Amino acid sequence: MQHDTHHAQHSHHADHTSHADHSGHGGHADHRPDHTGHAAHRPGKAGWAMAARATLHCLTGCAIGEVLGMVIGTALGWGNMETMVLAIVLAFFFGYTLTLRSILKAGVDFRTALRVALAADTLSIAVMELIDNGVIALWPGAMDATLSDALFWGALTFSLAVAFVATTPVNKWMIGRGKGHAVVHQYHH
To answer: How far is CA 98 from CA 89, 120, 149, in A?
Structure first.
């Protein structure tokens, strides 16, 4: 008896016709938010332009860190290895900081923003630093050039350009899989 009473109390759940009537609602097919130009942000749709912008963003942070590290190392009279280590650490710091800043502007909490920045930029910065420092290390005389030498600035500019060209396909690959700056982009809307 208790079962019959319980069943009768919930018999209104069997009639879903009023709930299923969505004739006044156009459905999700009619919802077309204006995301013109953003199709490249979905996994599998990474374009070269988006990859180049992500790489340029990374390059900016790396260049700031590289130059600042070399200026500090030179000013303190450090050797090549200590100066290079400082420049690499600062390149990562400024690369992450630029991404972190843009994510925090979107109202994301610091811990989440930091995780996103680390996930988005680590591979990109690592490849960029490897190429950049590799070119400088292999360029005859570049490691011994000072800030007042044209060789220093020429080698640095060339090494950053080579790093940009080498890192752009890495970013395109990551974005195409929904990683890297594709994750960062989610917080810009």
So the answer is: 14, 12, 29
> DSSP per residue over 113-136, as a string?
HHHHHHHHHHHHHHHHHHHHHHHH
* CA atoms of 64 and 68, how far apart (whole Å): 6
78-117 pLDDT tens trace: 999 999 999 999 999 999 999 899 889 888 899 998 998 8
What confidence tens digit (pLDDT) does each residue in 122-142 have?
999 999 999 999 999 999 999
Helix axes 110-138, 80-105, angle to 10 degrees: 150
93 class by beta-carbon count within 10 Å (0-12 exposed, 13-18 middle, 19+ buried): middle
User: What pTM, to 2 d.p., does this model score?
Assistant: 0.71
Alpha-carbon dihedral angle through residues 174, 176, 182, 183, given to the nearest 10 degrees:
-70
**Residues 122, 93: contact at Cβ < 8 Å?**
no
| Tokens, residue 132 | 């950049």
> Residue 123, SS3?
helix
